[in-house]
User: Fold this.
Amino acid sequence: MRAVSQLADLPTGATATVKALAADAGLRQRLEALGLRPGQSVQVLRRGWWSGPLHVRVGMTELMLRRRDAARVSLAA
Assistant:
């Protein structure tokens, strides 16, 4: 299995740890408010068709993320 570096590439059902957020201040604040902070565990529950959104779980919170926003979330190896 290859190493995954971004949340957008994490397979369905897989869990990883958030390493960093590579986003501008507004998006970073929004993602952190939703619980996506470095050190948090994140799991992909479902993937939308084509380039649709990702349904993810962070702690006890479930949220939908656009793939372009998920691509800005780096994961620990």
Q: What stands out?
A: The chain has a mean pLDDT of 93.
